[in-house]
Amino acid sequence: MVRFQQQYEEWIHAQISNERSPRRRELLENGLGHGTIEFLRSVWFPAVGNFDHLFPEWEVRDFNNGYRYLDLAYMPGGAKGGIEIQGYGSHARDLDVKRFKDLCMRHCLLSLDGWIFLPIAYLSIKDEPKQCQQLVLSFIGKFLTTDVSSQLSWLEAEALRFARRLLRPFPPMELARHLRITDRHARRVLHHLVEQQLLFVTSGNVRYRLYQLRL
After folding, report:
1. Which of 94, 141, 169, 215 could be 202's S-S partner, Cβ–Cβ 3.0 to 4.6 Å?
2. 104-138 burial by CB neighbour count: b if 16+ within 10 A, else e?
3. 147: in domain
4. 37 lies in a domain?
C-alpha cells in the first residue's frame, strides 16, 4: 500500500506538471474519481506494478469537434487504449435516455478513431479484483509484445505472452500449436515457467493438464 501511494502521487504530480491543457490540468488537480483510484489500487498496480504509458483524464477530440475525457488512456508507442470505470448508478440504474445515447455515440466516435476500450464495472473491481487483473494483462497484451524478462528463452517469452492474451487456463497442446512445436517440448517450456512462478497449474497432479498466468 505504501509503495502504491508513493508511486501514485509521483505519477499524478508528473501528469499535472507536464499538462498544458487548462481543462485537463483542472480535472487532475481536482483529483481522480473514487472508482478510478480503486481500480488503480486493487487492479492495475498489483497486476502491472507501474503506471508507465498510463494517462488519467485523457483529453481527446471527437468527430463533432468537441472534447471527451477518458478515465484512463493506455498509450505505449502511440497505441490507443482506453479504460473506463463504469459505476452502476451512473451507467445503469440512473442513466437517462439522453445520457445513454450520448455514451453510445461517444464510444462509437472514439472507436472509429482507433481506440480500443476496456470497460470495467466498479462492482467487479470490488468483488472480482483477480479477474479484473487478468483482463488488464490481456488488454496490455494487445499492445505490448516485448514486455518480458530478457532472461527467458524465445519460446518461454512467447509462451508467457500467449498466456497473457488468454482469459482462461490452457493445455500444453494449445501452446504447442501456437508455437509450432511438439506437445512434449511445450510441456518442458511450461514446466520451466511454473518453476519461475510465472505460470501455475490449474488442473492435474501427476500429469499437468491446464496452465494459467500467475497474477
Report:
1. 169
2. eebbebbeeeebeebebbbebbeeebeebbbbbbb
3. no
4. yes
Sheet strands side by side (includes 81-86): 54-61, 67-74, 81-86, 116-121
What DSSP string describes 67-94?
EEEEEEEE-GGG--EEEEEE-HIIIIIT
* pTM for the structure as a whole: 0.70
H helices of the chain, in order, are 2-18, 22-30, 34-39, 45-48, 88, 97-112, 122-127, 129-141, 154-165, 172-179, 183-195
User: C-alpha distances in angstroms, 129 versus 46, 123, 200?
Assistant: 10, 9, 18
Phi first, then psi: give them for residue 122, nearest 5 degrees.
-60, -40
Rounded CA separation 192/181 (Å): 16
Do 13 and 52 share a structural domain? Answer: yes
The total number of structural domains that make up the chain = 2
Residue type, 116: I
Residue 2 confidence (pLDDT)? 82
- Residue 105: domain span: 2-141
End-to-end alpha carbon distance in the chain: 17
Give per-residue pLDDT as tens, 105-121. Answer: 777 878 877 889 999 99
Q: Which of these three, 82, 113, 141, is where a domain ends?
A: 141
